[in-house]
Amino acid sequence: MTVRDRLRGVLAPLTTPFDAATGDPAAVPLRSNARAVLEAGATGVVVGGSTGEAPLLGEEEYRRMVGWLREVVPDDRLLIVGAGRESTRATVTACREGAEQGADAALVRTPAYYAPSISQRALIDHFRTVADESPIPVLVYNIPKYTNLPIADAVLTALATHQNIVGAKDSCGDLKNFAAYRDAVPDWALFIGSGALLYAALELGAVGGILAVADFAAELAVAVAEAFERGDKAASGRSQERLMPLHKEIVAAHGPAGVKCAMDAVGLAGGSVRPPLRGLSESEAKGVAALIGTAELVAA
User: Fold this and answer.
1) d(CA 152, CA 200)
2) Nearest one of 109, 56, 54, 49 to 79, comparing CA atoms
3) What DSSP designation does 275 have?
């Protein structure tokens, strides 16, 4: 079975747990968190993505984390690396290094620093070159919230026939954009990046979601996708109603710090974020705990 055939369901973009004494990424809690979401039914994990504080990690840290996870992610589950970098050359290198550590595919965001100077034509050339040279399949990643560079559906159309580009993740939060992507590349595996939109995206043809909310509510996110797949849309919708506020009021409102706080609340290893990011205030943390209680999430 190819990687493209396995791209489905709910994947968790893992946070990066940091050692309290050294500030370095910590292997044991990272692997423990991965095991927890996989046991809850996630079809795979992403390491070094936006929720994993990727721009704040060093390249050696990135390599170590991929290797640590390959040791615990079974062969029938996906290990995807966040390989987006600021240059095409560095992105290709990140794809190769991810592959060397055992990754199945690379999730590639747009470059961000020179966003005002990068045209959609330049993006086509960027993704095409990365896909030409990457030893593992590539997924295009649209997250304009952080990159300030949205990917037009015309870019996907131009890349549609590339044999090493197998899918995309859309985290812009606009279902019209997702629908345009679906029309542009009907043969790609498309993931939604918003836990609030999982059910709606499945109706539009998504194969699943790569969802930060799955870091602390994997079982609930998986319930949405699995009920939808078996045709029980009523059950899927009920789970989606419980999932939506967790995304909106924790993930969207607080980013990685909120996700880590929620993980702590359900008994996983969240911990601190890396500066210059800051943790939640006491009142914000209490609000997160209240949301976890309302959603009836159990301790991991």
Assistant:
1) 21
2) 49
3) T
Query: Which residue, 214, 194, 196, 198, is CA-closest to 145?
Result: 194
Helical (H) or strand (E) element with 139? strand 138-142
The domains of the chain are located at 3-237
Residue numbers annotated as active site: 169
The one-letter amino acid at 176? K
CATH number of 3-237: 3.20.20.70
Q: What is the mean pLDDT of each successive set of 10 residues along the chain, which is 300 residues long? A: 94 98 98 98 98 97 98 97 98 98 98 97 98 98 98 98 98 98 98 98 98 98 98 98 97 98 97 98 97 80
Angle between helices 88-100 and 120-133 (to 10 degrees): 30
**Helices 88-100 + 59-70 axis angle, to 10:** 30
